[in-house]
Design a protein that fits this description.
By secondary structure, this protein is an alpha/beta fold. The chain contains 5 helices and 5 strands. Helices cover 40% and strands 20% of the residues. It has a 5-stranded parallel β-sheet with strand order 2-1-3-4-5, with helices on both faces.
Length: 118
């Protein structure tokens, strides 16, 4: 298996498509629809990259990104945030993410962004 990617999205259809696409590209993927499970999953899965949906129940993707970037073990792991609800990318970059993808997104764009960060 290749690099490990952790994905959060509360839309199961998007989660399935992203996971399937990344697995097809030989990434090992762990996914969840629950924001409260992301950090504990990361502690056991040890991802090389994290993809977070911005708008989820509980902590949003930006707040989770800030948790990752302040965690000694995860601070150097690239984080991608994707969202359909952002008018200004600087709002998301303020959370410390390494890349932003606007929804709806092309799966090719997702794979290219992931590969560029790894």
């Amino acid at each position: 298996m290749g690099k490990r990617i952790l994905v959060l999205d509360d839309n199961q259809d998007i989660l399935d498509i992203v996971q399937e696409t990344l697995m097809y590209e030989d990434f090992e993927v762990q996914s969840t629809s629950r924001s409260d499970a992301v950090v504990s999953l990361a502690e056991t899965f040890i991802p090389d990259l994290v993809i977070l949906d911005y708008r989820v129940a509980g902590l949003n993707g930006g707040e989770l990104c800030m948790q990752f970037k302040s965690h000694p073990r995860f601070k150097n792991i690239p984080v991608i945030i994707y969202s359909a609800y952002i008018n200004n990318n600087s709002e998301l970059y303020a959370y410390g993410c390494d890349a932003i993808i606007n929804k709806p997104f092309d799966l090719t764009e997702l794979v290219e962004k992931v590969n560029s960060l790894l």
